[in-house]
């Protein structure tokens, strides 16, 4: 079952009658996915940044220049930026999903 069909199934369950609760649930689900993707992006990006940092430091042209280093606060900032970018990237799709009619969502499947 695709994500849109899951959302439509959730909307039509008999235990949910309040439309604002449905909208909040849709926003929560999409934003949760955006945060998870942001965390994974940060966790994948940090080792890649370390590899690039090591590659740059080992270049012969970099012998007389300052070495590139990363410390713990830089890693924390990278995770926070990844989370913020994930949240920003999830705002519009979640807002758009709440405005969509179930019939419209199923039409594009």
Low-confidence regions: none
Mean pLDDT metric:
79
CA distance, first residue to last residue: 11 Å
- Count up the helices: 4
Number of domains: 1
Count of individual beta strands: 0
Largest sheet: none
Could you explain how this protein is built, in words?
With 109 residues, this protein is mainly alpha-helical. It has one domain. Helix content is 75%, strand content 0%. It has 4 helices and no strands. The chain has helices at 3-11, 19-57, 72-99, 102-107. The longest helix has 39 residues, at 19-57. It starts with a helix and ends with a helix.
Give a brief outline of the structure.
By secondary structure, the chain is mainly alpha-helical. The chain is built from four helices and no strands.
Give the secondary structure arrangement, pairings included.
Elements: H1 3-11, H2 19-57, H3 72-99, H4 102-107
Helix pairs in contact: 2-3
């Amino acid at each position: 079952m695709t994500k849109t069909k899951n959302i439509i199934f959730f909307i039509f369950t008999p235990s949910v009658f309040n439309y604002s609760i449905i909208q909040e649930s849709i926003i929560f689900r999409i934003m949760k996915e955006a945060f998870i993707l942001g965390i994974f992006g940060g966790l994948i990006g940090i080792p890649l940044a370390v590899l690039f940092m090591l590659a740059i430091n080992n270049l012969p042209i970099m012998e007389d220049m300052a070495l590139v280093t990363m410390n713990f606060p830089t890693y924390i900032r990278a995770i926070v930026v990844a989370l913020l970018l994930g949240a920003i990237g999830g705002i519009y799709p979640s807002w758009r999903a709440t405005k969509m009619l179930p019939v419209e969502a199923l039409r594009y499947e």
